[in-house]
TrEMBL record:
UniProt name for this protein: Heme response regulator HssR
Natural source organism: Bhargavaea ginsengi
Entries under Gene3D superfamilies matching the protein: 3.40.50.2300, 6.10.250.690, Winged helix-like DNA-binding domain superfamily/Winged helix DNA-binding domain (1.10.10.10)
GO cellular component, one term: protein-DNA complex
Gene Ontology biological process: regulation of DNA-templated transcription
Main location: cytoplasm
Subcellular location: Cytoplasm
Boundaries of every OmpR/PhoB-type domain copy: 125-223
Function: Member of the two-component regulatory system HssS/HssR involved in intracellular heme homeostasis and tempering of staphylococcal virulence. Phosphorylated HssR binds to a direct repeat sequence within hrtAB promoter and activates the expression of hrtAB, an efflux pump, in response to extracellular heme, hemin, hemoglobin or blood.
Amino acid sequence: MNVKILVVDDDPGIRELVRITLQDAGYRVAVAGDAIGALSLLDTEHPDLAVVDVMMPGMDGFALTRELKSFRDMPVLLLTAKGALEDKERGFRAGSDDYVVKPFEPKELLFRVEAILRRYRKEEEAPILAGPLEIDRQSYEVACGNRTLLLPLKEFELLTILASRPNVVFERERLLERVWGLDYEGDDRTLSVHIKRIRGRLEGLTDRVSIVTVRGVGYKLEIRP
């Protein structure tokens, strides 16, 4: 099984239990004791899913979930001793995909992880529809009517991120992190150049889809009727 899971928990006992449970099921596992440690592992470990404890010192699990979602839209399973409805609501509003309350049965953790991964695999296989555009994440093709466009990888990744949430503004820093990585040290003009190229390519396909600059913040993809 070539799936890597990031386990983030400040309790060494729970962290080890989750690690062993996942490894015994065939998953590759990376571990961190806090949110900062987890974020530092993203570029080197490339996890497919994160199991995150809510109650951690410093950045809590809700805040870490939002970071993981904004970075790579990574699936997140929250693991916590809190079972109150308001805590579950906070978790789902932060973007978590599921919620397991401690103490938990290892089998329950496994089937919830498997369910999240199945759901994400289906979503990744499905094309993104943005107005007249159909973006195929398997073939890296962008189709509009009977015309098909092949984009360079970085441009395709940027367009895919923006098209996944039309009218949502993505900050420049977040786009750079998601496409070029957390350790990118280049000039952010690189992003501007890539956006300009994508705009030029879209103009040749349709006038219904455009990438709009939100001054001082970032970019969003707009779809006109």
